Structure prediction request, 115 residues.
Amino acid sequence: QVQLVESGGGLVQPGGSLRLSCAASGSAFVITTMAWYRQAPGNERELVALIRSIGSTNYADSVKGRFTISRDYVRNTAYLQMNSLKPEDTAVYYCKVVTNGRAYWGQGTQVTVSS
Prediction:
């Protein structure tokens, strides 16, 4: 079993920055992919960014050039640095970890971009 703890959400003005963290813990697991998804009210959950075990990354077109995903392999933690935030980035952000052939989700953290 893997537990995920997310942090770093909050309220920020347009143009501001936030950094999300997702720490994975448990026993005897090897993480392959770590990813961030988001879900705004009335919308489906969508992939924001992912990072593979080899370090390659993918981003949604809407966040390219503004968001950066990174990973601490020792601490089993993923980060999402979000810059130049826009009101349309407002959503609940979820961390997803794939390990041992299973996917685990975090509880979600609210990001609100508003003046």
Summary: The longest strand covers residues 18-26. Residues 40 and 91 are 4 Å apart (CA to CA). The radius of gyration is 14 Å.
